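Weekly modeling sync, notes
Attendees: S.R. (lead), two postdocs, one rotation student

Agenda item 3: backlog of single-chain predictions. S.R. asked that every request posted to the team notebook include the full sequence so nobody has to chase files. The rotation student volunteered to paste the first one in as an example of the format we agreed on. Action items at the bottom.

Example entry:
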Amino acid sequence: MFSGSIVALLTPFTPDGEVDFVSLRKLVEYHIEAGTDGIVAVGTTGESATLTVEEHVKVVAKTVEFAEGRLPIIAGTGANATHEAITFSRLFNNVGIAGCLSVTPYYNKPTQEGMYQHYKAISEETDIPQILYNVPGRTGVDLQPETVARLSEIPNIVALKDATGDLSRVQIHRELCGKDFILLSGDDSTGLDFIKQGGTGVISVTNNIAAADMATMMKLALEGKFEEAEIINQRLMPLHKNLFVESSPIPVKWAAHKMGLIDNGDLRLPLVELSEKAKPIVAQALTEACIY
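Predicted structure, as returned to the notebook:
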C-alpha cells in the first residue's frame, strides 16, 4: 500500500504569505515525473503547525486534484488534542486520500496508554488507513514498540513512520507487528539501512529536491540491490544531514527555491529564512550531491 520513496512535501507560499498553488502543482508534477511513490501533504515539512484548518484541507485537496490518481496522497492529520485529529480525519473522508499520517500528541506528553487511546479513538472515527508517526525529537514523547504492536491489531492502523533513527527498532517492530505491517523510515540519514533491516520505504525530506535519485535508490534497495543503492545514498548523504542544519523545512525550502522548484522560499513565522551562516553549507551539500 505505502512503500518506496515517499516525499514529505513542502508547502510553497507567495510573497504575501498565501499558499502558492501554482508552485504546488509544479511540485506535484515534478514528483510524478521523477518516479516518487507517494506524497505526504501538510505534514511537518509542509508547515502543518502554521496553516489554518481551511488552508490545511485545501492544500491536501489540491494535491489530490493535481496528482489525478497518478500516485497516492497521504494527508497529515496529527494534533495534540484527540478531537482535533479526529476532525481532520473526518474532513478528509471524501477528498480521495490514500491514508492519514498522524503524529504522536506533542507538548502535553501523554503516557503510552494515552497514546494508545488517542490513536484508537481516531481509528474508530474513519475507515481511512492510518499511519502512526513517531518523532520524539519534535514531540517530547516516544511511541514504544509494545504500544505500536497493540495499535497494529486495529484493522485500519496499517503503518508506522519511525523518525527515531534507531535501527534496532525495525526488527523489533517487525517481530511484534507481523510481516504485513508497513514500516516507513522518517530519517533520511538512516533510511537505506532501515530498508536493509526490513523496512518498506522512506518518508523523506531529501526527496523534495532529489526526487529521481531517491526513487531510484529506494527501488534498488527494495530489489535487494544494496550496493548500487548505497552509491546513490553516499552521494546524497550531505543533503540527508545538512537539510537539517537549521529546523526543517527551513533549509529544504531555501534549496527548492534555489533550484527553481518553487517561486520563492518564504516560510510562516516563527520559522524564518535560512541564515547567512547556513546558506553556504546547504549550497555545498547541493553541489556534493550533484543535483545543482
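Discussion: group reviewed the output briefly. The longest helix spans residues 226-242.
Action items: rotation student to repeat for the remaining queue; S.R. to check formatting next week.
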